[in-house]
Fold this sequence. Notes:
Order of helices and strands: HEEEEHHHHHHHHHEEEHHHHH
Number of strands: 7
Shape: globular
Oligomer: single chain
Strand order of the largest sheet: 1-2-3-4
Number of domains: 2
Number of helices: 15
Strand content: 5-15%
Radius of gyration: 27 Å
Amino acid sequence: xxxxxxxxxxxxxxxxxxxxxxxxxxxxxxxxxxxxxxxxxxxxxxxxxxxxxxxxxxxxxxxxxxxxxxxxxxxxxxxxxxxxxxxxxxxxxxxxxxxxxxxxxxxxxxxxxxxxxxxxxxxxxxxxxxxxxxxxxxxxxxxxxxxxxxxxxxxxxxxxxxxxxxxxxxxxxxxxxxxxxxxxxxxxxxxxxxxxxxxxxxxxxxxxxxxxxxxxxxxxxxxxxxxxxxxxxxxxxxxxxxxxxxxxxxxxxxxxxxxxxxxxxxxxxxxxxxxxxxxxxxxxxxxxxxxxxxxxxxxxxxxxxxxxxxxxxxxxxxxxxxxxxxxxxxxxxxxxxxxxxxxxxxxxxxxxxxxxxxxxxxxxxxxxxxxxxxxxxxxxxxxxxxxxxxxxxxxxxxxxxxxxxxxxxxxxxxxxxxxxxxxxxxxx
Length: 428
């Protein structure tokens, strides 16, 4: 085993607490081209590793949280020594072209780290995935060798998540898991628990399948036939009608009002709205360009005449690189900055207090489908690969539209006599 190098700036908790909070990690060199880094932020610290090849190409990965706020266990919190050992393992994988040698077991924690590294460079929704992976997968299965996983072990893990009440979001200072109240309807509470368990199983299977395809795991029998809980998905049912949407817009503060308006006119996700720049609006095609969506792929959102006119007002006289939507102080909208103001506007508008910003997206989809738009067109504007997601959540609205059209369009015969059948007379 390689000896652990020392660095007085990052090798102890007390030393790390003296470092400034910054985005760029504090680096130490382990060997040529190999570096261990410590990144400190407001919520705590984390370990990262960086590899630089002889050609100048660089790769970087997150190793895991540091033990600044909690005792180290080698998975959810790492000491300086544990981080350095994990970094050396990663350097070996890079040196072997991404294939792990027989030096040690390829654990579920290793598998998830490899997958999260891939997601970070190929997908947009990385931060939440990292949080959930740490809480539900790595903390429970992380030390297990992937080759020793069994269907029974994974089934028990899946069921344990379904048996657990929903958690409250906790800060780095919290040492205990806290739970929030569940739905008062027992069947609905169970559905939500099982839905949560399914989502974490989907994430784990995606990571294991990627590792299996890359040759890091010899077989996939342990999880290939593992079944999701059935009946957990239900159609989106909560959306605003036009009057409610107008009322909500009118109760928003001026900068939030523009954000809400564009959400209702596009069906875009909050993160996509925050990322829009002036140059993303194309007047000729009447569309907004989503440079990077949740799936990591670009797309165009096509606008109505009202949407085009609104975007023209947002872009008039602005530089191409300027944010399309700005807060009152001129800064860009970012994660959670809308939350308090939106909740206040929902309350003033007399809407359901639980109505969320994301349900503005459901409102756009629901009203568009009920107006007769084909499901494929709606799916493409929303950024889905096909109509399956739209059919699952909004298909019942399309059926209602079909029913209305049939009632209005199918032929009628003005038949009022429901008495006896009268025999037709023979032709002369």
